Amino acid sequence: MLSTKSPHYQTWLQRLPGWRRQFPLATFCVINTSGIDLQPGLWELGVRCVIQSTWEMEILARWLAWHLRRLDESPNEWLKGLWDRLPWAQWGGKEPVSG
């Protein structure tokens, strides 16, 4: 997940095409709080999820679950570890999406 607020925004934007070639199963999400519609350009660079604020975290969660289901290996352990590090895990009552 990348943010337009990051001081390294320009650097990772330039490196994104190389990352896509180096890590073909990786996928990228950008939280764009700039107020400028960057979605078409980001899609062109290979970003598959663009949200405008943390209020759209449900979109991010659904996209992440979809992406993880695409992977071949069983994600049970690392999915639980990832889920536990996400901010909504602390709110309780939510279970990770199993593969």
Instruction: Quote the distance from N terminus to C terminus.
Output: 21 Å
Q: How many β strands by DSSP?
A: 3
**General shape:** globular
Give the % helix: 40-55%
Quick check: average pLDDT?
77
- Could you give the order of the helices and strands? EHEHEHH
Strand order of the largest sheet: 1-2-3
Q: Supply the helix-strand structural class.
A: mainly alpha
Gyration radius, in Å: 14 Å
Helical segment tally? 4
Largest beta-sheet characterization: 3 strands, parallel
Q: What percentage of amino acids are in beta strands?
A: 5-15%
Would you identify the regions where 5 or more consecutive residues have pLDDT less than 50?
Answer: none
Description:
The chain is mainly alpha-helical and 99 residues long. Helix content is 45%, strand content 11%. It has helices at residues 9-22, 39-45, 57-70, 76-85, and strands spanning 2-3, 28-31, 47-51. It has a 3-stranded parallel sheet. The longest helix has 14 residues, at 9-22. It is globular.
Secondary structure: elements and pairs:
Layout: E1 2-3, H1 9-22, E2 28-31, H2 39-45, E3 47-51, H3 57-70, H4 76-85
Parallel strand pairs: 1-2, 2-3
Task: Summarize this structure briefly.
With 99 residues, the chain is mainly α.
What attributes does this structure have?
three-stranded parallel beta sheet; single chain; 99 residues; mainly alpha; 45% helix; 3 strands
